[in-house]
C-alpha cells in the first residue's frame, strides 16, 4: 500500500533495524521525519554520525536530535554505566545488563510529542521481539499498549499508528530485506562497545554477524 502526502516519524538509532524500518516506511510513500536520541550510551558519537549519514542517503531534511543525559544518572545498564562491563560471553539468562530501563517507552513518549506537532500519522520503530536480546520494551504487546496510551493522551484529532515492521523477524530476515531494499548497511552501527571498529563479541555484534552469516553475505562494516 502506497501512502501519499503522509508523514511518518521514524525513531532512528543509526542501527540496522531502525534504518531498515525507515526505508520500509519511505517505500510505502511516507515523508520521513527522523528523530535520534543521545542517551549517554557508550557509542553515542558513532550512532549520531550514522544517523546523519543515513538521513542524508534517505533524503531526510526534517531531523530531531534529542539529548537525554538523565539515563546516565539512572544507570543500571552497561550501555550507560561504564562501571558495568559489556557482556561478551554470549546469551545471558533473563534480561541482559545491556537493557536500558524503559528506554523504548521514553523514546516513544517523546516521539509522540513530535509526531503530534508534525501532524504525522505514524511512528516507526525498529524493535525486534523474537531474535533480540530479550528486552521487555521490544515486545509487540508493549508497543501496542504504548499506541493506545499515546492516543489517549493526545488531542482527539490525533490518531497515531505505531509501525513495528520487524518485530517478528529474525536477524537473517532483516539482513535479507535490507539487501533487497538496497539499504546502506555500511553506514549502520550495532556494536555496544566501540566507535571505531565493531568488537564482534558483544551481544549486538553477535546477532548482527549471525544474521549476515545465515544469509551468506559479508557484513560491510569493519570489525576488530
TrEMBL record:
The keyword Metal-binding belongs to this UniProt entry's keyword annotation: yes
Cofactor, free-text remark: Binds 1 zinc ion per subunit.
Pathway info: Purine metabolism; 7-cyano-7-deazaguanine biosynthesis
Enzyme class, first EC level, given as a word: ligase
GO MF term (any one): ATP binding
Record carries keyword Zinc: yes
Record key words, sorted: ATP-binding, Ligase, Metal-binding, Nucleotide-binding, Queuosine biosynthesis, Zinc
Cofactors (names): Zn(2+)
Annotated HAMAP family: QueC
Biological role: Catalyzes the ATP-dependent conversion of 7-carboxy-7-deazaguanine (CDG) to 7-cyano-7-deazaguanine (preQ(0)).
Name recorded for this polypeptide: 7-cyano-7-deazaguanine synthase
